[in-house]
Write a structure and sequence with these properties.
- It is a single chain.
- Helix content is 62%, strand content 0%.
- The chain is mostly helical.
- The longest helix has 29 residues.
Length: 173
């Protein structure tokens, strides 16, 4: 039976590193960008996609244009507080950005539909983990699509109830 050798021990055992390189390895692997560099590139790409120059973005955030330019396009550090302000100004979803940068190691994946759908499905789980790490207890968050579906269902229920009451009055009259 071919599947008899598939056990948790064989599946999860780390494979030994071979002494020779693969025949499909052509050159050195590209150096990975750090999370901070990927966040910077994500912010820069999203601002470019929306057609907002960094100078206008700096004006909206009430900071010096040269400082923002040095942070985003040069070597100054991107602090969490500034990153959060930039995300809010550009409408970047924190959870999707975190998945793209930290888990997928590809800031360009932020705009892909598959990443969007996966993040919407995992958003409540991620938020629960993040709040547990901070020691907080928070009510379960639902993705925006569920909030919209609940709102529409509630509106439809109220309109149906109003029609039933109106038909009931018509039949009694």
């Amino acid at each position: 039976m071919p599947h008899s050798t598939v056990t948790p021990d064989t599946v999860f055992r780390p494979s030994p590193a071979s002494g020779q390189e693969s025949a499909f390895s052509f050159g050195e692997p590209p150096q990975r960008l750090s999370e901070q560099q990927q966040y910077k590139r994500l912010i820069d790409a999203e601002a470019a996609r929306q057609g907002i120059p960094l100078a206008h973005l700096a004006d909206r955030l009430h900071m010096h244009r040269t400082r923002l330019h040095k942070v985003i396009r040069q070597t100054r550090a991107l602090k969490d507080e500034l990153r959060d302000r930039l995300f809010a100004e550009l409408g970047i979803d924190h959870v999707r950005a975190k998945f793209s940068v930290a888990l997928l190691h590809d800031y360009t994946a932020y705009g892909e539909q598959a990443v969007f759908l996966a993040c919407e499905g995992l958003k409540s789980f991620y938020c629960e983990v993040a709040t547990c790490r901070r020691g907080e207890i928070q009510v379960d968050l639902r993705p925006a699509i569920i909030h919209e579906a609940l709102r529409k269902a509630y509106e439809m229920l109220l309109s149906h109830q109003a029609r039933v009451l109106e038909h009931n009055r018509t039949l009694q009259a």
